Amino acid sequence: MSAVLFFIAAIGAVAGAIGVVTLRNQFYNVLALVCHLVALAALFLLLRAEFVAAAQVIVYAGAVMVLYLFVVAYVGGGEDIPARSALRIIGPLLALALAVELCVALLGTALKGISGKGAPYVPGFGTPEHIGKLFLTKYLFPFEVASLLLLVAAIGAIVLARRRRGLEPDEELERRYHPLLPAWVGSMAEAGGITHSEEPPVAPQPQEEPIGSQH
Amino acid sequence: MAIGWYLVVSALIFSIGAAGVLVRRSPLVILLCLELMLNAANLALVAFSRMWGSEDGQVFALIVMVVAACEVTVGLGLIVSMYRRQLPIDVDDLRELQG
């Protein structure tokens, strides 16, 4: 049963990864990565890492992917033009060589631990209780450093993505060349029914007698 | 399943991610491929944690997820900033560091 689940999840994860690399539309890339992450969470569950699997689904597939989708929609994820350089041919060959090398290194070593089923299962392994205890005792310093890193990243993203000076260029142009309203718009003369719409002036001329002026 | 199979899946995903980083040109997709490689490392860490029967590897995997979230945030901020300045969103055309 666990072998069947493993193969389903592994095929899903690898297919999602291939989809991320090969699909042309960037929306489909992000959706393929979501599929990959969910399959990977299933693999984590098979490895009895319940908390990591839950965090994977909630943080990655939930939050980070929504951020990606927003940026793809903002930038306007167009079709990706394939690379024109020789890297387009060399890149997959290098990756294939890396995969073969890693597989040889993993399967050719014949380590007993790798070929075995792992340590016997202890009840409570991988639950949030155990992970939290580790985080607050043995790994307290990495935990605090991670929180500081998150703060730095949040501030950095705000500084990077903020508007530099005022408005966007096209918005500013539109505002600058927007035709100004005539001077009497919003004044009491307009409220009194005196309209100047029949003779549109080139320059806004001053009113003849401003109401309430001292002169 | 033997632990070795999980490591093989992890190696495959890592290689696919590396190929994507080499081949694709959009920085968004390159960030996605970096996520693939980080996730492959996570899978290997969790598999080793299962192999030794201690949860330390899972703690490392969670820290890696935090670092990946930070990297995504800063990377997407850079892409949005590039789009605002009307630079080409293409790693082959972005050759100069001058603003």
What does this structure look like?
The complex is a heterodimer of chains A (215) and B (99). By secondary structure, chain A is an all-alpha fold. Among the domains of chain A are: 1-80, NADH-ubiquinone/plastoquinone oxidoreductase chain 6, subunit NuoJ (Four Helix Bundle (Hemerythrin (Met), subunit A), Up-down Bundle); 134-178, no CATH class. Chain A is built from 9 helices and no strands. Chain A has helices at 2-22, 26-46, 50-75, 87-107, 112-115, 128-136, 140-161, 169-176, 188-191. The N and C termini of chain A lie far apart (96 Å). With 99 residues, chain B is mainly alpha-helical. Chain B has a single domain, classed as Helix Hairpins. Chain B has 3 helices and no strands. The longest helix of chain B is centred in the last third of the chain and has 29 residues, at 56-84. Chain B starts with a helix and ends in a 15-residue tail after the last helix. The chains are: A mainly alpha (215), B mainly alpha (99). Chains A and B meet through helix 1, helix 2, helix 3, helix 4 and helix 5 of A and helix 1, helix 2 and helix 3 of B.
CATH architecture of chain B: Orthogonal Bundle
Annotated CATH topology of the domain at 1-80 in chain A: Four Helix Bundle (Hemerythrin (Met), subunit A)
Task: Categorize the overall geometry of chain A.
Answer: elongated
Helix/strand-derived class of chain A? mainly alpha
Number of strands of chain A: 0
Largest sheet of chain B: none
Number of domains of chain B: 1
Summarize the structure.
The complex is a heterodimer of chains A (215) and B (99). Chain A is mainly alpha-helical and 215 residues long. Chain A is 63% helix and 0% strand.
List keywords for this structure.
heterodimer, A: 215 residues, mainly alpha, Four Helix Bundle (Hemerythrin (Met), subunit A), B: 99 residues, Helix Hairpins, 0% strand
